[in-house]
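Annotators were shown the component list below and the corresponding predicted structure, then asked to write short factual statements about the assembly.
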Amino acid sequence: MISTIISGVILVGLRTVQLIRSPYKTIRIISNDVNYSQIYVIFVLIYLYFIFADFVKRFNYAPTLIYAVFLLNFLLSSVFFYFMNVVQIKRSDIRPFIMTFAYSLMPSLIWFTINTSLFLIFPPPRTSSILGTLFSIFFIIFSMGMLFWKIQLVYLSLRFATKASFLSIAYAVILYLCIFAPYSVLLYYAGIFRIPFI
Amino acid sequence: MDTFEIKLKKKLENVYELKPHSFGVPLLDVIYKRSTGSLKKNPFILFIPVSIFCGILMYSVFGSLIVSLVSRLQYGF
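Structure shown to annotators:
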């Protein structure tokens, strides 16, 4: 049991570094992997993040409830792309979707963790002073970098999980966003997520 | 099977795991292959300059509006 947890932690750490260095090769390996301890490690890290964020800025709801909503989002997203794939290509294995999508949460986890830490160190609102503007530019640059990485990982996850072409993936993502965007607005007004954790 | 054969088989499986893309337009295929080729290894070599460019562009277009955008993003968790 303990060795499984330790191996899961080491694997997640190594693969996160590999996702920075060679995302294509790493996602291909992850999509064929069957070691579920990695998913548990990632989900525990995300749960710890929600507890940390609640400590920094009190949520409207208990962090466990927000985490449950996140889990629901994750499962619904995985099932959505899985069914899109079943309809299009008739493959029926949800494992690569879960594995690759779990790893594609790493840029989000890093961005949210750093954002929360910066909230603690340099609390907003920012001012238009030189330091405030410089901080804002650096924050935007960092956020853009994480966003590009996230988009790449999500695309590669879909590419290896579905084996579909670029256009099929693009259509599926557009359809997903058509459903997810109003849902995110709903979550925003419900006070659960300002920026959805996906 | 000897080690070389196993390695070769695995490599070929990796190569043929995904079908090559075809948009039906040769120019688009070339653009896709070139752009994705450079992203397969060390994508941050490309992401960092593009992010810096986008950050500076956003500041030069929107000015101090990005300060309020960052404030909103900082409240975004």
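Statements collected:
1. The first helix of chain A runs from residue 2 to 21.
2. Residues 2-189 of chain A form one domain.
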